[in-house]
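Weekly modeling sync, notes
Attendees: S.R. (lead), two postdocs, one rotation student

Agenda item 3: backlog of single-chain predictions. S.R. asked that every request posted to the team notebook include the full sequence so nobody has to chase files. The rotation student volunteered to paste the first one in as an example of the format we agreed on. Action items at the bottom.

Example entry:
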Amino acid sequence: MSKLFNLAGAAAMVLAGLGSAVVLGAAAPAAAASGFQNTCSNFTFAYNAASQAVLNAMCLRADGSANGTSLTLTGIGNNNGNLVQSGGASTFQKSCGNIQVTANAQGATLSALCRNSGGGSNATSLPLNNIGNNNGNLTY
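Predicted structure, as returned to the notebook:
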């Protein structure tokens, strides 16, 4: 019974956090830690047909059923070997490899080896902020 209560509480927290969406071209709200990792599992990084960076996961719906979902990652770039928040479409995947997503109760992190201007690679990571689970679907 406590798992059901925790799921309902986590779903309510996720739904309550949907009011702060990132709007491109406008002043973005402060980055908030993502909560999707508390109701989702099997996180993987992938490329879609357009070579965009995608986060895949299996997320719980409000009724407790599982749903496979994907979210195109936006606003992440590579600045001289470091993952950074940027505007628009993500471009880091064009110059980074060994890309992984890890998560714990506090948040999710994107990690990669990214090329720098000297031609070398740098191990870098960035918190994945403002991502939620909206009834089994990953959302910003």
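Discussion: group reviewed the output briefly. The beta strands are 40-47, 53-60, 66-72, 74-79, 82-89, 96-104, 107-115, 121-127, 132-134, 137-139.
Action items: rotation student to repeat for the remaining queue; S.R. to check formatting next week.
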